[in-house]
Amino acid sequence: MTIKGIRFGAICVDRTEERKWSFRSKGSFDVNSFARQHFEGGGHFNASGGRSSKGLEQTILDFKAILPAYQLQLQ
Question: Which end of the chain is more exposed for a tag (fewer CB within 10 A), N or C?
């Protein structure tokens, strides 16, 4: 991640059978734990992935609902 001030990024790809997530972080935010806890995923501390079997719209709503719990960690 090379955008100044950005510590966490996520991309969601809508596949026919599921939604695939890619998470990246810079610094001390553990996207491996984030993916494991919320999106049946995992990987590395600063790079991980996950998935959701819910529809795209619900998956995005769920993601947005989770973010406030991490606000302090992402500042």
Answer: C
Cβ atoms of 39 and 50 within 8 Å: the answer is: yes
Label residue 69 exposed, middle or buried (CB < 10 Å: 0-12, 13-18, 19+).
exposed
Residues of the chain scoring pLDDT < 70:
1
> What integer pLDDT is reported at residue 14 of this predicted model?
97
pLDDT tens-digit map of 37-52: 999 999 999 999 999 9
Ordered structural domains, the chain, with CATH: 8-70 (3.10.310.30)
- Contacts within 8 Å (CB) and 24+ apart, 6-12: 7/74, 8/70, 8/74, 10/63, 12/56, 12/59, 12/60, 12/63
The one-character DSSP state at 35 is: H
- Kindly report the pTM of this predicted structure: 0.91
